[in-house]
Specification:
Order of helices and strands: HEEHHEEEHEEEEHEEEHEEHE
Strand content: 25-35%
Radius of gyration: 19 Å
Largest sheet: 7 strands, antiparallel
Amino acid sequence: MLEERLQIRYVDLTFVLEIERKGLLPRNKVSALRGGLGQMLLEQNCIRNRKCESCDFEKECLVRRTIYSKYDIQPTFAKHGDSIGYVIECENLRERFEEKDRLYFHLLLFGKTIMYFSQFLQGFYMLGQQGLGKENIPYQILQVQNEQGETVVNGYQVDLQKLGISTIDRYVQNRMEEFDKNKTEYVLKFQSPVSIKYDGNFIQKFNAEAIARSALRRIFSFDCFEGIEVEYPELDDVPETISQNARPVSIRRFSSNSGRMELHGILGELIISNVSEELLCYLLACEKLHIGKNTSFGFGRYVVH
């Protein structure tokens, strides 16, 4: 059953950008990349007035299929319009860039969203021409590499056969080989803010049970996204919090629909014990899938040690 749950297809792609003019970029690159991507996709594809709820082409809209892919099985807890098919990662907080400097970010695509890689690529290409951030700093996409380091995009040459499509199950199997199976205590180091609602409130400090239940919920969401018919996973053995340190983080972003807004989360690390082998598999799976809210903006990434 565990292997079936983790048959979630994904690609993990590294974009290599070359900055074309010196200037300031936002501290939070993911928000700028995600917001700019959405705008570029609308400019490429929207033939109405961008009011998606009332659009008669909504079912066929490439923007919807690209960044708002629908679940094959709709979970009762998920809202229509949630974005689950992709994650952008960039933990470079540097702001001042010079001409010819390079910036790297990761784009993870899941399930049927992989089919729309070319739309993502075109969107990021157009964003590079328009420019990133308040100063509209232009960039070129020098390369895109898959998880094995093979070149998918080199300048204007694109080889879709090199996307490197894999499954979360395979990733977890490889990661499990790095751990001593006799140990049940692990450290979760969060590389980006995490925003989790637990017992009706957003957590202000790390809690092993909240993290575990968020991982199970995330995996079930992706099972539904991929059309894998499984029961909601049970947390048979509740992990224990050994120690934790968390600090609050706020990230400002601008949305064309909602205006200026702030995303809130916490950063830090958590040490947990009483981790079963099954739970460890789920936690390792979510190194790729992320946990909590605002994952399309890079939230909820951690590494298990």
